[in-house]
């Protein structure tokens, strides 16, 4: 893994680039323009940057109104306040009204590690998944964040994208990388087990796959950057070919990526699964790596969960 | 109305310096913290906990006849931790756990982690509605307890506050006293640039509140005013408290940057020196 980048900064650079390409793009702030890395956009296009202060539900409605006049508002702030706090506006003004607004939840998951549950967002994907027509993006490295930001602005319709704040390692080669909305990426072929990772913890899933590979396990590693619409084909194929599916996400184990995959498999190809994430409890607080370690999200912990999963049903003395 | 004597005022000033020192001690244990809003509210908290709030008892934090205090802007919780520890609700040993895994002192307060905390704030715009519910409930029970709230001035942007403002006057909650910590800064800069809510007093008046405006660092004025509430029978009371963000630390005071301070060891030493000098001057 190469150098790490601040996901918010990467988003900010991509936003400024999108603003360059399309004069209808606007950056919308809820008292967090610099924290959401919109400063670069603001400096370039001051008239297309609007500040509204701390009123997220109202701002979401304002974005819908702006969209009716042909603008493409990109509203970015702390993740729980643009998913939970404003849920009715997301559902009605963006979803039901089908408005072309892009909402970015930053510092998502546990990345506001010491600020506690009010600032952590472990339910954002679960909430957004219930809104018909809402696209959900959860990019897994800086290259993908940039591509996802540009793609979300090109796509017509409401989009929710989540990004963390902990520096992210670069996993993809920018010169070869291609982002296709709704299409997962097989990062490694394998036949014993499939790990499906997303967003901030894709790198942890990749680390687990490397650990297991060295032990002789053939791991398929899939990156799901678009949680909705889900790449059904890719996931069903993996279920058929490898059996055993493990999902890895910085989110509750209910309602997120794991939930989406389970719903798909249960109805089309019942497959045993393990879901790694936070299990029905409010997040605690502490240093980021220690915190995600509480929920089994570190690479070696994911590998361990996979090992136990693979060993299940095998004879404890001979492994047969 | 309760008039502080000069001797009492001096006593409270000493307490206020000690609370500022506690805030600094907590932040020092981590590497950052919301210091600006904690220090602008220090005199308000000093007056509340040492002169105004009734039946606050560290041995029985849930005493039924206690007055309630809610820090609606939960990120200002370091000053809450500072005063509760000083009063013996919990040990100051906990300060050193700030930023550590599973600390009972997270960046926003959790009523299930610490005694003396009345609500889990942090998401702005929650404190006032909860306080209105408490005030209405206490009135139904014919309780003489009052409910006190500190809000941030940036926080006023949240619509829930204005919903609660209407509800409070509709239900005649004259047992509710709200202080707006008018430090004139929010996260992104000056409140009047980010989202202007002036004329503030007129807005609250229009919602049916009785309002006053004070110097939020003047202990005599704070105690006078708080102990004079309700200002009008049948109406909730709103006090605009003019303050300075990060009051008491020269290089942070009255700056936007003081909102969330990433500490450097040298700056901590300098801040400690400044607070020590004030304490010495007061004879503490
Ligand atoms: C609903 C919500 N939106 C955004 C935030 C992020 N945030 C934390 S503090 C703050 C600024 C608050 O300013 P103010 O209320 O004036 O507080 P003070 O100046 O006293 O620190 C913001 C935007 C939040 N905590 N809750
Ligand atoms: Mg303020």
List keywords for this structure.
heterodimer, A: 320 residues, alpha/beta, Rossmann fold, seven-stranded mixed beta sheet, five-stranded mixed beta sheet, 11 helices, 19% strand, globular, B: 284 residues, two-stranded antiparallel sheet, 10 helices, 40% helix, binds thiamine diphosphate, binds magnesium ion
Summed up, what is this model?
The complex is a heterodimer of chains A (320) and B (284). Chain A is an alpha/beta fold and 320 residues long. Chain A has helices at 7-21, 39-44, 56-68, 87-96, 124-129, 142-154, 202-214, 232-242, 257-268, 288-294, 299-311, and strands spanning 4-5, 25-29, 49-51, 72-78, 102-106, 135-137, 159-162, 168-169, 185-188, 193-197, 219-223, 226-228, 245-252, 273-278.
- Terminus-to-terminus distance of chain A: 35 Å
Largest sheet of chain B: 5 strands, parallel
CATH topology of the largest domain in chain A: Rossmann fold
* CATH architecture heading of the largest domain in chain A: 3-Layer(aba) Sandwich
The gross shape of chain A turns out to be globular
Alpha-carbon distance between the two ends of chain B: 28 Å
Radius of gyration of chain A (CA) equals 19 Å
Structural class computed from helices and strand pairing of chain B: alpha/beta
Bound small-molecule species: thiamine diphosphate, magnesium ion
* Average pLDDT reading of chain B: 98
Known CATH architecture of chain B:
3-Layer(aba) Sandwich
Number of helices of chain A: 11
Low-confidence segments of chain B, given as residue ranges, are: none
Structural account:
The complex is a heterodimer of chains A (320) and B (284). Chain A is built from eleven helices and 14 strands. By secondary structure, chain A is α/β, with parallel strands linked by helices. In chain A, the strands form three sheets. Chain A has a seven-stranded mixed beta sheet, with helices on both faces. In chain A, strands 9-11-10-13-14 form a five-stranded mixed beta sheet, with helices on both faces. Chain A has a two-stranded antiparallel ribbon with strand order 1-8. Chain A starts with a strand and ends in a 9-residue tail after the last helix. Chain B has 284 residues and is α/β, with parallel strands linked by helices. Chain B has one domain: Rossmann fold, CATH 3.40.50.970. Chain B is built from ten helices and nine strands. In chain B, helix 1 (6-29) packs across helix 3 and helix 1 packs across helix 4 (77-86). The radius of gyration of chain B is 18 Å and the shape is globular. The two termini of chain B are 28 Å apart. The mean pLDDT of chain B is 98. At the A-B interface, helix 3 and helix 10 of A face loops of B. Thiamine diphosphate (TPP) sits between chains B (36-37, 40, 73, 75-76, 122-125, 152-155, 181, 183, 185-187, 245, 259) and A (31-32, 54, 56, 78, 81, 85).
């Amino acid at each position: 893994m190469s150098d790490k980048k601040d996901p918010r900064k990467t988003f900010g650079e991509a936003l400024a680039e999108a603003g360059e390409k399309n004069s209808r793009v606007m950056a919308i702030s809820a008292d967090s323009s610099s924290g959401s890395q919109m400063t670069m956009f603001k400096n370039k296009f001051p008239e297309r940057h609007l500040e509204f202060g701390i009123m997220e539900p109202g701002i979401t409605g304002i974005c819908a109104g702006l969209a009716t006049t042909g603008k493409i508002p990109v509203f970015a702030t702390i993740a729980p306040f643009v998913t939970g706090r404003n849920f009715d506006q997301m559902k009605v003004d963006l979803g039901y009204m089908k408005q072309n607004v892009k909402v970015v939840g930053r510092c998502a998951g546990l990345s506001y590690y010491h600020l506690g549950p009010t600032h952590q967002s472990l339910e954002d994907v679960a909430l957004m998944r219930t809104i018909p027509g809402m696209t959900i993006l959860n990019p897994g490295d800086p290259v993908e964040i940039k591509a996802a930001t540009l793609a979300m602005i090109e796509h017509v319709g409401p989009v929710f994208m989540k990004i963390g704040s902990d520096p992210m390692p670069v996993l993809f080669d920018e010169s070869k990388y291609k982002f296709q909305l709704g299409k997962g990426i097989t990062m490694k072929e394998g036949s014993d087990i499939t790990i499906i990772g997303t967003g901030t913890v894709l790198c942890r899933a990749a680390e687990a796959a490397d650990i297991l590979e060295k032990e002789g396990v053939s791991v398929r590693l899939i990156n799901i950057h678009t949680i909705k619409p889900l790449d059904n084909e890719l996931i069903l194929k993996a279920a058929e070919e490898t059996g055993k599916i493990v999902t890895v996400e910085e989110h509750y184990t209910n309602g997120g990526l794991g939930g989406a995959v389970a719903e798909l498999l249960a109805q089309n190809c019942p497959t045993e699964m393990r879901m790694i994430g936070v299990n029905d409890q409010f997040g605690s607080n502490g240093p980021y790596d220690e915190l995600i370690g509480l929920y089994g999200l570190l690479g070696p912990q994911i590998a361990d969960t996979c090992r136990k999963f693979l060993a299940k049903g095998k004879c404890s003395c001979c492994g047969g | 109305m309760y008039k502080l004597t000069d001797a009492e005022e001096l006593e409270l000033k000493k307490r206020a310096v000690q609370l500022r020192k506690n805030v600094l001690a907590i932040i020092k244990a981590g590497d950052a913290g919301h210091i600006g809003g904690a220090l602008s509210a220090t005199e308000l908290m000093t007056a509340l906990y040492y002169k105004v709030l009734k039946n606050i008892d560290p041995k029985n934090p849930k005493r039924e006849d206690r007055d309630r205090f809610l820090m609606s802007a939960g990120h200002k919780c370091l000053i809450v931790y500072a005063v509760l520890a000083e009063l013996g609700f919990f040990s100051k040993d906990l300060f050193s756990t700030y930023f550590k895994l599973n600390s009972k002192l997270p960046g926003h307060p959790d009523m299930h982690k610490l005694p003396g905390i009345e609500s889990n704030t942090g998401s702005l715009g929650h404190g006032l509605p909860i306080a209105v519910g408490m005030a209405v409930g206490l009135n139904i029970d014919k309780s003489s307890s009052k409910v006190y709230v500190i809000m941030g001035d940036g926080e006023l942007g949240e619509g829930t506050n204005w919903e609660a403002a209407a509800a409070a006057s509709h239900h005649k909650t004259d047992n509710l006293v709200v202080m707006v910590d008018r430090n004139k800064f929010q996260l992104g800069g000056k409140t009047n640039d980010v989202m202007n809510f002036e004329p503030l007093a007129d807005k609250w008046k229009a919602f049916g509140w009785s309002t006053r405006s004070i110097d939020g660092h003047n202990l005599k004025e704070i105690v006078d005013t708080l102990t004079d509430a309700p200002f009008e029978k049948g109406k909730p009371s709103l006090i605009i408290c003019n303050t300075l963000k990060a009051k008491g630390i020269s290089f942070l005071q009255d700056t936007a940057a003081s909102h969330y301070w990433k500490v450097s060891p040298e700056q901590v030493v300098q801040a400690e020196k400044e607070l020590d000098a004030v304490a010495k001057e007061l004879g503490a």
